[in-house]
Design brief:
The complex is a heterodimer of chains A (about 240) and B (about 250). Helix content of chain A is about 35%, strand content about 25%. In chain A, about 45% of the residues are buried. Chain B has ten helices and no strands. Chain B starts with a helix and ends with a helix. In chain B, about 40% of the residues are buried. Chain B has one domain. In chain B, helix 1 packs across helix 6, helix 2 packs parallel to helix 6 and helix 6 packs antiparallel against helix 7. Classes of the chains: A alpha/beta (about 240), B mainly alpha (about 250). Chains A and B meet through helix 2 and helix 3 of A and helix 1 and helix 5 of B.
């Protein structure tokens, strides 16, 4: 199965000494890949380095076999991303925010924006300015901009942040449907074990800037127990 | 989508984002209001005192002088601040950087958008002040229309150079307010500098706020005009490259 994302030896150190060191993992086509770890583990740092929001000190990233950042424009056409916070242009309407993305994809049909607004449940609010949206609505709009161009790989950083229970359930079932029916691959970063367990088939476990494990969870073991086992092994090593 | 297509798409995006903000509408509104209010006031004053201080043909150039001295540089500062540090502060710059467009094309499209807005502002200014000139004095206005158009077109060059310098300066800021205040302080300092160190003044784009007048006065050597143009063009190139170097390293 071909790799849609390959990260090798990714290292990034901030001035305060925190960061990530020698992180390597691979996401295969069709994976719903969980990038799991506690707060401050370095998950967002790795995701930002993958999509070019920051420059790693060392390491390589390949998206669909294309090196980043050299082939940035070609590679990112197939990627949808939601990094860190669900930000949008508050002074513009939901629809206008999506039009900003759609301009980079002239091949999208006229009805695609309507389709995506329906998908995330924002169609009735499309002409409202985003500054009046709740956190959950902003999160859904961010998800809509991520999915607008039918990406092959979707990178989501804490996608259920700020969502209520119904919102979380709806997001999970949307991810599952897109993975199964449209063959999208996902990288989902989260600190919430229950979310990851319900969605992901493979994981990378990150703690204190280091990758502890990459692969599937052992049969019969919960993710929580597996994570604690990996942490103990890392301490003992 | 090729590079030009991406740049065009992002210019359209930047324009829509600016238009959605009240500040830019205010600046363009000012561009319409100032010539009209000026013409009204001048017509009243000239009528009251029975003197012709400014005729219809000169009126657009008089207003242009006010704009190139203060209002256009402030517009350039506002645009540079809105498109760069304001977006960093609002965490919306990353939204553009996550699209399939390189940082070079993002930077290029933002700077070109600033140039486009300034060109539109000058175009609106020319049209409104020329029409307002009818109110001041219609006689002789027709002779001044061509001169006025050339002057307004020429005025774009130094103000764009100021904008490129502003774009470079704001790369060091993550706050819109701090960036704008710094630009204003630098502007005031640059205006005072020719009195202190006249030799340096020739290299600053702020010194060329009345450069457009050289294009309307007869008898100015082509070499003088070319010299000024090349200095301003060099300023644009150097500040653009330096600004891009800082933008390219930015972590958001």
């Amino acid at each position: 199965m071909d790799a849609v994302l390959r990260v090798s030896g990714l290292t990034k150190q901030y001035r305060n000494g925190r960061g990530v060191e020698k992180v390597s993992f691979e996401v295969r086509r069709g994976d719903v890949f969980g990038f799991f770890g506690p707060n401050g583990a370095g998950k967002t740092t790795v995701l930002k380095a993958i999509v070019g929001l920051l420059k790693p000190d060392r390491g390589e990233v390949q998206l669909f076999g294309q090196p980043m950042p050299q082939q940035f424009e070609q590679a990112m056409r197939k990627v949808g991303t939601l990094i860190e916070t669900a930000d949008s242009f508050d002074c513009m309407t939901a629809r206008a925010n999506l039009e900003l993305v759609a301009r980079f994809y002239p091949e999208l049909g006229a009805g695609r924006i309507d389709e995506v607004l329906e998908l995330v449940g924002l169609a009735p609010y499309q002409k409202e300015k985003v500054r009046g949206f709740s956190l959950g609505m902003k999160q859904r709009l961010a998800l809509a901009t991520t999915l607008l161009h039918r990406p092959e790989l979707v990178i989501l950083d804490e996608p259920t942040n700020g969502l209520d229970i119904e919102g979380m359930v709806a997001t999970r079932s949307l991810i599952r449907r897109l993975a199964e029916e449209e063959g999208m691959s996902f990288v989902i970063s989260s600190h919430m074990i229950s979310e990851m367990e319900k969605l992901c088939n493979r994981f990378a476990i990150v703690r204190q800037g280091r990758l502890l494990y990459e692969g599937a969870v052992e049969d019969g073991m919960s993710l929580e127990a597996f994570y604690l086992q990996q942490v103990e092994q890392a301490k003992g090593a | 989508m090729g590079a030009m297509g991406l740049v065009r798409a992002n210019i359209a995006n930047e324009w829509h984002k600016l238009w959605a903000k009240r500040k830019i509408k205010f600046l363009l509104g000012l561009t319409v209001l100032v010539p009209l209010l000026g013409a009204f006031s001048l017509e009243r004053l000239q009528g009251a005192f029975g003197i012709l201080a400014v005729d219809g043909a000169d009126y657009p150039l008089t207003i242009l002088g006010l704009f190139t001295l203060v209002i256009l540089p402030l517009t350039a500062f506002q645009l540079a601040t809105e498109l760069f540090p304001a977006e960093v502060a609002a965490r919306t710059l990353k939204l553009t950087l996550l699209q399939p467009i390189s940082r070079w094309n993002v930077f290029l499209s933002k700077v070109l958008t600033i140039g486009l807005v300034l060109a539109v502002q000058l175009g609106v200014l020319w049209a409104v002040s020329t029409a307002a000139g009818l109110w001041v004095q219609a006689e002789g206005l027709a002779n001044g229309i061509g001169n006025g158009l050339i002057a307004h077109a020429a005025a774009w060059v130094p103000v764009f150079a100021v904008a490129c310098l502003a774009v470079l300066v704001v790369q060091g800021f993550r706050s819109a307010t701090g960036a704008l205040m710094t630009l204003i302080v630098l502007f005031l300092a640059a205006k005072a500098l020719p009195f202190v160190v006249p030799e340096v003044a020739v290299f600053l784009p702020f010194t060329y706020s009345d450069w457009h007048l050289l294009w309307t006065e007869g008898g100015v050597a082509f070499g003088t005009l070319l010299n000024g143009f090349l200095l301003l063009a060099s300023c644009c190139i150097v500040t653009y490259i330096a600004g891009y170097t800082l933008f390219e390293r930015k972590e958001v």
